[in-house]
Amino acid sequence: MTADDRQVRGRTGLDPGTRPAAVPGELMRLFVAIAPPAAVLDELDALIEPLRARRLDLRWTSREAWHVTLAFLGQVDEATAARLLPRLERAAGRHQQVRLAFAGAGAFPAATRANVLWSGLSGDRRALARLAESVVAGASRAGAPPPDKRRRFQPHLTLARCRTPADVAELVAALDGYQGQPWTADRVHLVRSRLGASEHPRYTSLANWPLRTVPDKGPDKGPDMVPGKGPDTGPVTTG
What is the pTM of this model? Predict the structure, then answer.
């Protein structure tokens, strides 16, 4: 395990790996993500904990698996996964680190008939969207176009899933005023998802690449961290 891998394990719930490993002919379920720091996830987890007890009908996701998805790639074979590595490395190298914070909540497709309850983001959302666009373009050139590549980018950190459409408006309202501590997305991960005996998938970071360091501009504090707002327009939610 490299020093970078040890840092990943210490900061996040992703289990670091080395390179895509698969039995010849086996397909891997892959996605590309950023991993928030452990302290940020701990803060959000503490906020969510009392809500879990109130809604036992929901399938709450585990804190160890929390991440922000940039692109879901679906089933990918070993050869295509190998082609992904240089493409994603180049994509990451084109972008600077992104300042973000978790803020508020929402639901897909709607709070009164939700399939997914999520936490949202504030911060430099435009930069995050540009990073996701580069990841999608690189994956497509490698032969792994995201199945939902034409869908508008709406990243989300999934807090809970609903077995059947559920009314989570009360939970969304309870989290509406939340504004988490700012954090910096400093690298991109290629992640493998394995479905096991439990209802929670296991995520392994197969490879990761650093984003460029933001030049020091002195007293500039960076993007505004107001829930639902930022230095650009349009909603962004988090995966």
Answer: 0.83
